[in-house]
Amino acid sequence: MTDTLLPDAATPDTAGPVRVDEAVSRAAAPEPTRRKRRRLKEIHVHLLLLGAIIVIGLFPALVTSHDPYELDGIPFTSPNGDFWFGTDEIGRDLYSRVVHGLQISLFSAALAVVVALVLGTVVGVLSGLRPGSWLDRVLGIGTEAVMAVPAVLLALAIITTYGRGAFVAAIAIGLGEATGFARLIRGVVIQSSTFTFVEAARTCGAGPIRTITRHIVPNVFQPVLSYTALQFGLALLAIGSLSYLGFGEAPPSPEWGVLIAGGQKYLAHAWWVAIIPGLALTAVVVLLNRIAYLLQEDH
Amino acid sequence: MTTTIDTAEPAPVETPVTARSTVLRDVARAVGGKLVHAALVIYAAYSVSFFLLFVLPGDAVLARIGTTDTIGVADISDLDLDVLRDEVGLSDSLWQQYWNGITGLLRGDLGSSLVNDRAVTDLLAEALPNTLALAGLSLVFSVPLGFLLAVLAVNPRSRFVRSTAALVPSAYVSLPVFWIGILFIYFFSITLGWFPSGGSQSAAALVLPTAVLALLGAAQFAQVLISSLRTELGTTYASVTAPAKGASRFYTVWHHCLRNAAFPFLAVFGLRVGQLLGGTVVIEVVFSRTGIGRLMVDSVKAVDLTVVLGLVVVLAIVYVVVNALVDIGYSLLDPRLRRRSALATEVTR
Question: Rounded distance, CA B179 to CA A244, Å?
């Protein structure tokens, strides 16, 4: 009964975030190359899928034959050969609507992540340069204050003043997510000043810009990238929630949260109108989380 | 920080301080520091949300009249608008309003709604019990469920059970919470007819929203517990010492590892409370329950700035208080932290 303990503990597999230092120490130990190669392959497959999704998001007409706004069919046709996902309450093709909705979701989430990344980097670098200084403390308290407000609520508060819409919603979500980036980047900045190779580079006469771009950034790139993928998925979910509540895109738009909110009324006799857009959202978020996990694990 | 003891006591030589009282003093100092920090965070949260909400000269008074859509603004003269703004205090300068808000907050007065003049504290008192019942119940269920999943993910001999129990939580947290709510309505309410699909009157209506949120909490707890349990199982005491003395695998996990793994869990517990309150907002709308969520959505639609501000501040206070309690509990529960502080005092003296 106890003999199963050792081999299992020695090769912890799947799920669960792994800290950078842990991963480094594990990579240093001899690891079967077959396993490594398989993981690399897995990353490539996932990135390829993400690329396909982005292409479909940019050019939705490539894979759809119906217009997302035209009343092409009989209302509430269940999924069939012509209307793959069925039709909605006024006979629009749900498949084209879902595919066209991808564009809005991806764009909003990307905007949110860019806002979070830029804001988080500024705050993180400013507070990480002199840890413990008054600036660091003030920024730390500010970060914690924003974290204390649930993300959806903060976004709703911003929408109250600046009006509804996908643009405002995305920026509001980005503001909430910036706190995580600020903490991550603060840690990275503090940590990178202790790297021996940074000191070595300075000793060799490298200027601050060269040190940062050639030595620090390549080393901290992977955790930040992994975190970005994770936050991208969370942004998709948050933007979906906001438009479900009615504060993102307005109803004729095929945004996924809007589709789900619209379909909920007809759940009893046309399940597909609300369920299928949710499946699409889930699929994209699962893919992004998986990429975040693989990036974290692989070195 | 422990070196300041000398300045606190002018004659330390005659009265040797026992280890116990220094520990207590250290704990008291830590608790005091945490409280000051918590107060600062609440103040910052209030300021940030105040300026986000009030920096634009909002026309909240138009919502109060409620004629912007149908009759139009032309119906009301500017003079009337000014009078109305005076009445609700929106014509004061920004700093005046900010000062009034802060002093009001200290008195426990969050102002009154711009739309219907009711006190924000009254509105909150009406909405909170429903939300707290939902959030509290789901927390109660999610903790044991999370522990169960975590033990299932590391303990059983069957690799299939382990990997399934490890996969389920990470899959569940990728699902949109409002969509899970709709799925639950479809399966358990429309298809099977077991529970009502919404409302907040009966206890049966509480089942589905509680289940959605409890599962979400359990999944997040399980994720943290699984990763810390795996770390613990890799340590010498779990992989060598415990088997050597004849402890079964389950005994090792349950008795030795889970206690150590519970500390990261405690940290996540504090964060989870904040997310839970955010999730409740959405879930309450999905299941058309009355509560904080409904109040928030209605207030945002009506541009009721004071109610929105009040809600944001109250939820921030809940979050900060829970996290401060978790922090304090952390240092009280972990014998290592206590011993370390005692040791530090010994060394510095």
Answer: 9
